[in-house]
Every structure is written in structure tokens, then in C-alpha cells.
Design a protein that fits this description.
Number of domains: 2
Order of helices and strands: HEEHEEEHEEEEEEHEHEHEHEH
Mean pLDDT: 92
Radius of gyration: 17 Å
CATH class of the largest domain: Alpha Beta
Largest sheet: 8 strands, mixed
Oligomer: single chain
Distance between the termini: 41 Å
Strand order of the largest sheet: 4-3-5-6-7-8-9-10
Length: about 260
């Protein structure tokens, strides 16, 4: 596997965190869990994984900025570079013994994602990309699907949990889309949803109320695999809007037309 020094550092950090998470996943019933909100949990494993990643990345690049789901944002001496990290994307799956969760790490340079890693330790699938160098899963190049017909397409989304205000909008989305496609999946990990679009497993994906750490790495994966990504709200910046829509080049326009909200 060839990549930049930063990418290799990201992969090392993701694998280190993944080893600890796999160990805790095998003993998930013994985890000490505190509840952050309805359906939104944080575990000892989650915090330990972010600590391991931060030590690895910031130890090697101490001047970079940091944005982590659990520890928040820290400005760096270098204002042009920032790590964006979700140490355990799919925490609810993890805590219920469902083997669908990931470590997500992205490097942002001057406001643009330039390197990305999404690691699925349970399946030993490492998705990675660098700007201009394509997208990969382990040692194989990946590309978005070539499907052209909505009726043949499978899409992914996130259905809001608890009392989130976006549930009515999501239900409207499903009512519009489901009669027109081959199916919609809700697997509970945004970074893996985007990685699956990049790998051609899903034909498209959309979701609201996401943090930058949920989307950052996946955005680059999809783009480097030949897909299109933008905010669900037309004309908005993805991180600012907290929403995303991604698909292959053939289905992006019809999917966006069906789901897009005005700016």
C-alpha cells in the first residue's frame, strides 16, 4: 500500500484504535456506558479509541488542528490543516453487538479534505483515499456503481432516533423515494454508508443532522471513486448544513431532484 506519510499515519492510528475496539466489542456486555441522549450513547471504548487516535496523530503532527466527536475542537498552530475524527461511528450498533461500525479519520487542508480513512475492524475492511489518487478498499481500487435506473438502485439513509426534529422530513423522503427504487437501507453508520457508495455497494446515500466527523472521510472516498457529493440543501456547504447527498454520476441528479430542499 503506497500513500503519503500523512495517510500512512492515519491508517496506523485507525488500526491501533480498531484493535482496542475489537477487544471491547467481544466484551460488549461489560462496557461501562453513559447515556448522552435518547439513543445516543458514549462508551468507555469510544473515548479510549479517540484518545489512541489523538495520541498517534497529534504526536506526529503536533501543529495540526483537531476536531473529534468526543473531545471537540482544538485550534492548531498550523491553521491550514486539521484532523477530523470519529473514533467509533456506529456506537449504538457496537453497544448492541451488531458488527457494523467504523473508525473514521480525515485530514483537511485549507478547507478541503485531502486524505481519508474509514476502517471497519469487524470485517477487516480498510477504505482509504487521497485527493487525485483514487479510492481503495484494502489493496483493491474501488469505484461507484454504474447503475443508471432508479428502479434498480439501492440507497442508504439515516432515520432519526429519539425526538429529533428531522423525522418528518425523512419520512417524506422515504415516501417519495421508496416507490421509485429497489430498496432503502438504514445501517447506522454514516461513514460506512459513504464508503459503501464509493465501493458500489450502495448507489446513493443521503442524511440530515450529521457532524463533520460523520462525513469528512466518506466525502473524499465517494469523490475519488467517481461519485458526486453535496449538501442536501442546494447551495449550502456540506459541513455548515449538516446534511449530505451522495450518488454515482448517473443517479445523483434524479436522486437530488427527488430529495433536495431549497437553500
Amino acid at each position: 500500500m503506497q500513500g503519503s506519510a500523512n495517510l500512512n499515519l492515519m491508517i496506523k492510528a485507525a488500526r491501533k484504535a480498531g484493535r482496542g475496539l475489537v477487544k471491547d466489542f467481544r466484551e460488549v456486555e461489560n462496557l461501562q456506558v453513559s447515556q448522552k441522549g435518547a439513543g445516543d450513547f458514549v462508551s468507555r471504548a469510544d473515548i479510549a479509541a479517540e484518545k489512541a487516535i489523538r495520541e498517534e496523530l497529534m504526536g506526529a503532527r503536533p501543529t495540526y488542528g483537531w476536531l473529534g466527536e468526543e473531545t471537540g475542537e482544538t485550534a492548531g498552530q498550523d491553521p491550514t490543516r486539521r484532523w477530523i475524527v470519529d473514533p467509533l461511528d456506529g456506537t449504538t450498533n457496537f453497544l448492541h453487538g451488531l458488527p457494523h461500525w467504523a473508525v473514521s479519520i480525515a485530514l483537511e487542508h485549507k478547507g478541503e479534505i485531502v486524505s481519508a480513512v474509514v476502517f471497519d475492524p469487524a470485517k477487516d475492511e480498510l477504505y482509504w483515499a487521497e485527493k487525485g489518487a483514487g479510492a481503495w478498499m484494502n489493496e483493491a481500487r474501488i469505484r461507484v456503481s454504474g447503475r443508471r435506473q432508479m428502479a434498480e438502485a439501492v440507497f442508504a439513509t439515516g432515520v432519526p432516533f429519539g425526538a429529533k426534529k428531522t423525522l418528518p422530513a425523512t419520512m417524506r423522503d422515504l415516501a417519495r423515494l421508496m416507490p421509485a427504487c429497489a430498496g432503502v437501507r438504514r445501517w447506522g453508520s454514516a461513514s460506512l454508508d459513504l464508503a459503501y457508495v464509493a465501493a458500489g455497494r450502495y448507489d446513493g446515500y443521503w442524511e440530515r443532522e450529521l457532524g463533520p466527523w460523520d462525513m469528512a472521510a466518506g466525502i473524499l472516498l465517494v469523490r475519488e471513486a467517481g461519485g458526486f457529493v453535496s449538501a442536501l440543501r442546494d447551495g449550502r456547504e456540506i459541513f455548515e448544513s449538516g446534511s449530505v447527498i451522495a450518488a454515482n454520476s448517473e443517479l445523483y441528479a434524479p436522486l437530488a431532484e427527488m430529495l433536495r430542499e431549497p437553500a
